[in-house]
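Thread: "does anyone have the structure for this chain?"

Original post by V.I.:
We have the sequence but no experimental structure in hand. Need at least a predicted one for the grant figures.
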Amino acid sequence: MALAGIIMAAGQGTRMKSETPKVLHLVCGLPMVEHVGRAMQKAGVNRPVVIVGHGAEKVKESLDSHTYAFATQSEQLGTGHAVLMAKEALASYEGCVLVAPGDTPLLDGEALSSLVAKHRETGALCTVAAFRLSDPTGYGRVITDAMGRPLRIVEQKDCSTEEAKVNLVNSSVYCFDSKTLFALLPRLGTANAQGEYYLTDVLSEIVKMGGVIAVVEYSDPDLFMGVNDRWSLAQAGKIFQTRILRHHALNGVTIVDPSTTFIEADVKIGQDTVIEPMTSLAGATTIGANCVIGPQTKIQSSQIGDNVEVLMSYLKAASMADGSRCGPFAHLRPGAQLGERVKIGNFVEVKKSIIGDGAQVNHLSYIGDATIGTKTNIGAGTITCNYDGFRKHETTIGSYCFVGSNSTLVAPVTLQDGVFIAAGSVITKDVSADALALGRAQQVEKTEWAKRWREKNQS
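Reply from O.Q.:
Generated one for you, tokens below.
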């Protein structure tokens, strides 16, 4: 059955104290509004309508226009006014419509699905997600009759003394009959403490017309946690992080120390991989099976194969094929592509380079804008000089080459297969296959020069 969705994301969020629109603040690597959108999509919404206002262009730019539709609330006149802005986008739709705030990143598809199921089962015109709190301060109260049937929602600032004692609170997440919703929204007034058009007043209008309101009471208030400032953002992130770590652990990943491990929402990890302490995995990172990652490692938007070891290193937009390893203290920058069984050692930096299967760059080297062939060995302290101050140039090294320690390869330069570069060489010209190349000054020895120098300076 068809299902529509509306996400309220027009507010400024002044308590965030930020130039960034409130709903774009990140929780585990994703904007809060994206978390809400994904929850709706899991519940069956095809293309949620996002109500934008403050920072509208930034919000639109952050979301995929193929996944979301947009409606603009030019003036922030309340939640009822915000939802009314979606009327045109949903003009041809009739059926159930979910409504949720864009600052509830812990909302999930399962909770929304149960709300929709209850709505359809009862034939209600509105179904409210609610929960109980020992201290309901700050939340709208769900007011029921003697039979427990919901009658209305009263916002905190409008509560009477008796209404304020009610501990069943409104989550601000609803399922409406769309035809009824858009028919009643224009009837709302602003006779309330905030002088705004409250979406919650639609419930009173439904009761007046004899319609049914239903409530789904949830046992976990965290599902509907709203983020209003940086501290609640941090709290939401911690809860979501626990969900992510638990998901990976239950799917066969060893998390050695959950308290120091940070994994963002879009990361994928294979079975029997071990994540060591103080490790951060971010962006669209994929890690294969039987890997060891960390400790003290950060990997961002990178692709890691099976049986890979990453020790105390930083990777960004890089890839490591099966059986490869890097670290400690390696830096794989964007475009670094390691083949199978490649070894990148301590204090090695690789940028925009392809390293062939079985090759090794073990110590204190910089490889930039280079292609290195199969089973080539790069000695300690080797540098590819790829930048002349204006342009980048490429270095090509063939297969089965040996580049001696402390060599400098000045690009553009090509070493064909089987080349041997003597240690300490500066190579500025191409080298033919299987040749030995030397590019260093001739060693000169002056007999007893050191002795005479010492005697001169000591006298």
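V.I.: this helps a lot. The radius of gyration is 31 Å.
O.Q.: and The chain is about 20% helix and 30% strand.
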